Fold this sequence. Notes:
A: mainly alpha, 8 helices
Amino acid sequence: MINRFIRYIQRYKGWFGGAAAICIFLGLYIGLLASPPDYYQGELVRIMYVHVPLAHTSTLAYSVLFGGSIWYLWKRDPLVDNMCQASAGICALFTTLALITGSIWAKPTWNTWWTWDPRLVSFSVLLLILGGYLMLRKLVDDQERGGRYAAILAIVGGIDLPIIKFSVEWWRTLHQPMSFSTRGVSISDDILVPLTLMSIGCWLLFAYMVMVRTQILYLTDLLQAKKGRLLSQTHFSQTSP
Amino acid sequence: MTGLYTRWAFIVGASLLLAAMTYQHYQQDLSTLSVETLLKSQPASQPIRIQGMVKSGTLSGDVEQGEATFELVNEGTSIAVDYQGPPLENIRELKTLVLIGRWDPETKVFRAQDTALINNFGFVAAAYLVSVIPLFWVIFAMSQRVMVLFKEIKEEKLYEPEINPLADKE
């Protein structure tokens, strides 16, 4: 079922890329030029229009990796395994960028590039888990076995997702509390519009990137198989009398 | 490959246009002048923003009612400021602030009507450049890789029917 779904949306990846570009450019225009500065943060609020969508997308990417890993262990579908591998790499990119932009925002606001805050630490742990996942895939020679081990790691690492989400409620923290919760939305429309546009843009961009990366992994496997086949043919023709 | 480069030329062009518009907006509407530049250029008509520090021992007036006079100092040069505007919440001596108002070249007094937060454009620009450039670069590299792989596969003649050497032997 998931295999068919992935193949189906692969056909429309260009639309995802186009929609992502429109949302991001519109979000950047409103965020940088049309929206007013924040009363307390001033112009620095504009960093939020990239930092928050990047952070949201990295948790979405890990959720895809988590769900895909469960599915892979159950069905052993190689296409889902490729999608998981693609999601992990892209998730690592988004997590790194979210940490860097957060750090740039923290310097003028908190007067430090880094603090041992629960949200920051749990988010960095996510990057470590992803690093482990990608290393495991590289280090284990048997692709099927590597995929299985990596899927188990991704599922175990999934415990970090609720910790990231609720760290600002469970512990005393410098990081601002959740803006979207059951209590409602705690940010003004001026900020909400560019933030939403950028978030949707980043989610669509993630979908597009996953599809392209999955395609790359599939094509690489195909090329290797082809080269292997040619090699075996050459070997056969050289050794046969 | 041409289609890929055309698409990316459009994306880079749109990004550069947006960056130029943003730069112009910030230069025109939000950038601040130093006291020294203000005294050199003497801009009389248009509203301007200047940044400086309230000189110690010069602050007087009813700050809570939005009336104050003080000297604003910046890199050793100072000017007299007459503030008439919204109540100043946290003004004090030795505080750095941005004032919005007009320069009166006859009386050599800066007539301020409002204050603004000190801008940190460097941090904002850094955050955008650090996130957008690597992201675009990765997507471009991925799109290019797909093209290269397709080309390699075609060159490897993958779509030709496979010859079964055992069948030939028979």
